[in-house]
Amino acid sequence: MPSPAAAIAHQAYTQPRSSARPAPRWSEEVDTRTPTDVVARLGVVATFARNAEIFGEDQPAEHLYIVLSGAVRICKLLGDGRRQIETFCLAGDVFGWEMSPRHRFSAEAVSECRVVRVKRSILFSRAADDADLAHALWALTAAELGRAQNHLLVLGRKTAQERVATFLLDMAERAGAGQGPNGIEVTLPMSRQDIADFLGLTIETVSRTLTHLEEISAIALPSSRRVLLRDGATLKRLNS
After folding, report:
1. Is residue 88 a contact partner of residue 198, using CB atoms and an 8 Å limit?
2. Cα pseudo-dihedral 82, 83, 86, 91, rounded to 10
3. Residues 172-214: pLDDT tens digits?
């Protein structure tokens, strides 16, 4: 299932264009392609092993990437050795956006993953004459901006418990996890250290918060990577 950002992009891409400049159609069929579909057709597939670097900080920003399977973390290592994870990219997500000619962050495979790699020079040259491609790039950029704004809110205004609850609900939605007899089960591809570096917390705080949520029966922890969301109302209240 695509991420919320991808869903926003899909909605923006498929909504009707202005009646002043109607797009020509050979038929009345609805275009069901997502923005990622439109962009991915111009790229090639590459596979990366767990923890492999896809691109490094300050390397030339020559490609845009689309996740087909697995998970990717976008991160930066600070001067004192601390790491900040800017986002996790799952299937359907796009990464590698840059305004400058070089990457400001690194991209690493959280688990074994497959991505489509598209040259930026091809995208920009084609977009000048391809309205569908230009609109897809606009939609994906807008979705990325929305995701970044939401993450700023999490880091700037939410408590540790609220951050962890928000993260779990977001991962459940992005993974398309369905309701089971005991709740919604989510398999997390990332470690607790990854989660801590994403939420701006220590690994000890993340572990304590998960334990507290388990104690109040909001979640269950069958294993370190599996989380069962048992009380959605409590988690959503914390996420509000």
Report:
1. yes
2. -160
3. 988 776 677 778 999 999 999 999 999 999 999 999 999 999 9
